Amino acid sequence: MLFVGDDWAEDHHDVEVQDDAGRRLTKARVPEGAAGIARLHAMVGQHLPEDADPGQVVVGIETDRGPWVSALVAAGYRVIAVNPLQAARYRERYSTSGAKSDAGDAHALADMVRTDRHQLRQVAGDSDLADAVKLVARAHQSLVWDRTRQVQRLRSALLESFPAALVAFDDLDAPDTLELLAKAPSAAEAARLTVAQISAVLKRARRRKIPERAAAIRAALRAEQLPVGPASTLAYAVVVRAQAGLLTALNAEVARLEEQVEAHFGEHPDAEVLLSQPGLGTVLAARVLAEFGDDPKRYTDAKARRDYAGTSPITRASGRKTVVMARYARNNRLADALHQQAFCALNASPGARAYYDAIRGRGKSHHAALRQLGNRLVGILHGCLKTRTPYDEATAWPRNVTLTPAA
Fold it and tell me: Transposase IS116/IS110/IS902 C-terminal domain: from which residue to which, for each copy (predicted)?
């Protein structure tokens, strides 16, 4: 077998090839792209017989995505995505001085997959459709997070210059709120808004009880507040108008990406099983599929899926002391989606609600109970995907289900 360490950068890769004994056969710096892949194949071909199986080549690299990784997988190599934190800890075996180089990192990666590949995760062979779902689902989630950050910035600006707006508007990223703030970003401009102008904006946003809501907004915007200097007022108005415009654009792009998420996810064969799970709508289900992938051989059992999801706890035992803790080294995108699923499942599934109430009855906090519920829902999802069976409430939550200490 051959073991390849690949320390990648934006425009090049430092590569080292080792044999079974850990002897360095060759090393080089190759460029990113088709020319670099061809050079890497040539380096491997010099030490691998022509009739050998490409699966005899094991590649260690600190990423699991991108055209370079896809090319390695397509060549038939066994590609292992090494966590950068694991690689850093492993590198300390060679040097305690803190010295570091790209060539040294490639050597450490090659040695790591040679000695410890049985404890590392091979890059999953997800389908092209699953990769497409991952791209649009992650882009959509990133835009939602960006929108939340922009809303907080807008709120901060209003709190310092125009606090009456925070009383008038409940949802700062709503279309009618953004349109009104763009028209009147300061207290003086807002005081000149008429009921008719506010009603027209609410009508375009398809709000209900428009006369009552318009009157309440107008009264709140005209409420007395502490004065702000004229120059500062003008400056804050510019900031608020800019934030409102940015949030309007973000809303449009989030909606457009959501349509793409629904379109790509709807074509996947696992969509029916995922949508049958309690608490999963189209967007959340797409995020779960994107982060778990669709390689049927990736998770050997439900525990492996729970561990990857970060819902299963970790145990620290030393001598007579044993502590069970939440797992925070995890895929944060997947953890966020599963946490939301657990919360939504409280209303969608009587069994999930009873399970949550039982955990809360033991004195656990709300978030701890949701983590345990999410852990069980991941196990249920694994069984449904393995048997290609939609969710069934009676099967998932039998009457004699009990809470075990390991929960």
Answer: 272-356
Name the pairing type of β-strands 321-325 and 78-81.
Answer: unpaired
Q: Which domain holds residue 296?
A: 272-396
Residue 90 has φ and ψ, to the nearest 5°, of -70, -35
User: pLDDT by residue (tens digit) across 163-196?
Assistant: 999 999 989 999 999 999 999 999 999 999 999 9
Does the residue 403 lie in any domain? no
Instruction: Looking at the structure, tell me whether residues 320 and 363 fall in a common domain.
Output: yes
Residue with tokens 């707006």: 165
DSSP string for 234-255? HHHHHHHHHHHHHHHHHHHHHH
In total, how many domains does the chain have? 3
> Does 207 lie in the same domain as 97?
no
CATH of the domain at 185: 1.10.287
pTM confidence score: 0.83
**All residues at 6 or more sequence positions from 171 whose CB lies less than 8 Å from its CB, including other chains:** 177
pLDDT in tens, 238-266: 999 999 999 999 999 999 999 999 999 99
